[in-house]
Design goal:
It is a single chain. The chain has about 190 residues and is mainly β. The chain is built from 2 helices and 6 strands. Strands 1-2-3-5-4 form a 5-stranded mixed barrel. Strand 2 (about 85-95) and strand 3 (about 100-105) form a beta hairpin. The N and C termini lie far apart (about 85 Å).
Length: about 190
């Protein structure tokens, strides 16, 4: 790995031509700071449970068993060269604390078959019709575990059946200390 840096831009800036440089005394531009050397230290993932999921959160890691999967959209999309399909499925997944609906898209559908145990990494909670849905986008990961989960799924606590309402809370007014009712000086 070399330590020399490449220029970040090859465009000519205004006033950098031969005719303009004669009167330009600003000098060379400062170089951009170098990237930190060495490997980046990664944090260990912190796993959560279904009952601890909150609306509109990101970065959730959890292990769950797939209970059911139902296709809700299977639509072909015409492309210039090939035909692609958009597929969406709702899957009920859960752990020992409860269950949640997971929205699987395209290639994710093959991974979340009923009976599979999966690990969701960097999952987020989306709100759909005021209820929570677990989703994994391009920044997340779904892993299928070969051995079955060692827990019994609690199907009584479905957090996707809880309806939430978005409430706008006005900002608090800053409380200034009120002045005492003292008459102005010289008015005695």
């Amino acid at each position: 790995m070399s330590t020399t840096r490449r220029p970040t831009s090859y465009r000519r800036s205004p006033g950098s031509g031969p005719a303009q440089q004669a009167g330009n005394s600003s000098g060379p531009r400062p170089a951009a700071p170098a990237a930190p050397a060495g490997p980046v230290k990664l944090r260990k993932p912190v796993f959560t449970t279904v009952d601890q999921l909150k609306p509109m959160t990101e970065g959730n890691n959890l292990t769950a068993r797939v209970l059911s999967a139902r296709t809700v959209l299977d639509k072909p999309l015409p492309n210039q060269t090939t035909f692609r399909r958009t597929q969406v499925a709702e899957c009920l997944v859960g752990d020992h604390t409860g269950t949640v609906l997971f929205t699987a898209r395209n290639q994710q559908i093959e991974m979340v078959k009923p009976g599979n145990t999966v690990i969701f990494r960097n999952a987020r909670i989306d709100m759909f019709k005021d209820t929570m849905r677990l989703a994994v986008d391009k920044w997340g990961l779904i892993e299928v575990i070969e051995e079955p989960a060692g827990f019994k799924v609690n199907e009584d606590n479905n957090v996707s059946k809880v309806e939430y309402e978005l409430v706008n809370v006005p900002p608090e007014k800053s409380k200034k200390p009120e002045k005492a009712n003292v008459p102005p000086e010289g008015s005695y």
